[in-house]
Amino acid sequence: MTFKDCLNHYLNAYNIRPQSLAEATGISPSVISRYKSGERVPAPDSDHIDALAAGIMALADTSKCDEPLDVDAIRQAFITSITGIVIPYDAFVKNLRTLLTNFHISNQDFARGISFDPSYVSRILDGKRRPSNLYSFILKTSDFIADCISNSEEIERLSGILELPQDHLTTTRGRSKMIAAWLGSVSVAKEDPIASFLSTASTFDLNDFTASIHFDKIKTPTVPFHLPYTRIYSGLAEMMESELDFMKATVLSKSTDPVIMYSDMPMEEMSKDPDFPKKWLFGMACLLKKGLTLHIIHNIDRPFEEMMLGLISYIPMYMTGQIVPHYLENNQCDVFMHFVRYSGSAALMGEAIRGHHTEGRYTLMRKKEDLLYCKKRAYSLLEQSKPLMQIFTRDQEKEFIAFRESQVWDENDRTVITYAPPIFTIPDAVLEHLLSINKVNDADTARIVAYVHNLKEVMHKMTQNTKCHLSYPILSKRDFDSHPLTLELSDLFLEHPIVYSYEDYLAHTTATENYDTAGNHMTFVTDRFLSFRNIRIIVYPGRFVIVSKAKAPAIHFVIHHPNMVSAFENYVSSVTDERLLAVSSSSSMGAKADGTA
Length: 597
Known about the structure:
434 Repressor (Amino-terminal Domain); 4 domains; 8-stranded mixed sheet; 7-stranded mixed sheet; globular
């Protein structure tokens, strides 16, 4: 039974109107409607689950139904419908012990890694205690164990335990999902593509990535290879060969012209080849190593989830700042498919009939007259495209400042989700102390102080007329100590993040709570859950979205595509809805988030 089926069962069985449930729970009617239709599913450990269970218990008409009703049973039914956890508890404990033993993880290290008391974890492993929220415990456990596994020998060992192919376990995220599924027989739910994009961007470290592919050791080839001025390729195998030959010709040439790439050919068969993806990634790395700018026109004429999955795979290359992504607004032809590659030294043009792409034909050209024609064609295609997103790295800091001045600080309403208190509310004394204990050099100190003071003035003036809804977490000391937060200074592209002390963090959150909201135009919402580390999201409804990553590296994605903007609006709305409910519930119980829980 899915969550929507479970919810609709209770509403129908106990004669509960959705509007009444919305009023009883404080959840907006639109969110209730999306829950009923299956468009949205709450997190199993969210306050919405508790509120829905309590609301149903309070509103249920039991006069016409013999089914016994209990708030805990309702809550558990909801959680089970979302997580699919059906494994017996003793089997879960046995599986967990197997993993800890095989990867030499001590009970103390495990407890510290998931932020639990060691004695409590020992009782769980002995079968004497049961986590109050098994789903949350499994997720924390799988994330921690996945992080502990890194080398090929450990991945091979995990593959044997889980009885899964190693290619399912090559990434930390992939390992975590598979471990969670094995620990609790969890049905791996379809993840929100926006959440997946944000999670991948948040955890990605460019330094780790370049080390993993030995980017620093890649030497741009200089030895020429034999390639005729014109060559024709046919079929799938030669299509892959043509792509690699184009990269070789481009890398070995003296040209530094930008590269333009477009394809609406299916890529599934090529990705299944055991060698091609590695060779393609190496070729792309060589193009980037040469310092070339790559204009990639993405094919987005496909389901949104597939489009986002493709974009996620490009994140490592986006982080270099050398990729400029575009898209074509109008739907492409349903009959013909095209393949376009152009650089200053080579061009690759191909075509096929849709459904018969394995019979396609591709021509690699290097003659001057051919390149002139292909250049006009490629740039005409580029002119027809629109920016999918703008990407600003430290090398584009001036361009980002210009964009920020012209667009970001205008009077349009916005919603912000960030991982730390907003920097414009920080007291001067707290900022000064943090700069001191982090030993920030004089030049960066001057930049930071000037930026913060200017932002304070801008925000004070802007919020006189502009509505700004800002959401950030308040962490307990235990959670903070596990992963200390840094100042939200992504706009400055700092090389070294500035880490809070917990005392300064609390002082900053207190100052935020007391911030003058300028005639109620500024709204702050907090909770005790940190969605993503190092990520700030600013949504300008119907216009664009800015996703800013604070470190490794500091980078800004300005997203323009209407479908992506709409998806981000829905995602941010779901997060803020749940945080608003948490605030409402806390207020009704007289609780106050003081950060000491």
